[in-house]
Amino acid sequence: MHAHQQDFIAVIPEALDPAACAAIIERFEASGQEAPGRVGGGHFPDLKRSSDIAISGRAGWSDVEQMLNQAVFHGLKQYLRTYPFALIAPVMLQYTPAGGSARRIVYEDLESMDDATLSHLLMTVFRPGRINLQRYRAGEGGYPYWHCELYPKDGQAETLHRHLLWTLYLNDDFQAGQTEFFHQRRSIAPRTGSLLIAPAAFTHTHRGNRPQGGDKYIATSWVLFQPAAKLYGSG
C-alpha cells in the first residue's frame, strides 16, 4: 500500500469473537472491581468519566489478559504489514533470510516475510502494555478531552515508550460513542469485537465520545517498545 490516503489508523473487524466480548462484559459487571477512570494526571471526571478495571497481573483475569493480547498481537502483524516503518524505522533491525547472510531489514522485506519471522521481530522490539477494561455509562460517560497517549510522566519513561494505542470494542448496542481523531477528521464507530490500532503521538490526538441509549465497554492499552537494556544490551 502506497496510497496518499494512509492515515495510520487501522480497524480490524472480528478481532475477538462476540461471545468472548459478551463474557468479558459479564465478568466486568460481576467482579465489583471497577474504579473511577483516571487520566495521566489523576482523576478528573470533567476530562474522562468512566469505570475502569486494570486487569494486568490481577488475580482471576489472566485468561482475559492473554486472550486480548493474542487478538492484539494478531492485529498488530496485519498493521505492520501495512505500515512496516512502524517496526523498522525506530530501530535498526537485522535478520538472516533463508539461504542468505545477515543484513538490515528493509521496507520490502515485510511484505514477503513469513509469519514466524515477523512474530519474532515483533516480540524483540515491542511489549504489551497494561490492559484496562472500561465502561462508559449512557448519556454521561466519555473521554471528551482531546488527548494523545505519549507524554513524559514517570522516572522510567514508561509513558514515552508507548508507540501505538489499541482499543478493542466489546459491544455496540448503543448509539454514538465513536472514537474521534482530530487531525484525520475520522470517527471510528464501535463494532463488537473490532480492534482499533493507531499511533500514540500527538498526530493522532483523539477523544471518546459519549454513548447514548446504552453503556459502552472497551478494552484498551498500548504497544510499547522494549526497554533499552533489552533492545540494545546493558552496555
TrEMBL record:
It comes from the Bacteria. InterPro entries: Pro_4_hyd_alph_FE2OG_OXY (IPR044862). Residues 132-223 form the Prolyl 4-hydroxylase alpha subunit Fe(2+) 2OG dioxygenase domain. This is Prolyl 4-hydroxylase alpha subunit Fe(2+) 2OG dioxygenase domain-containing protein. It comes from Pseudoxanthomonas spadix (strain BD-a59).
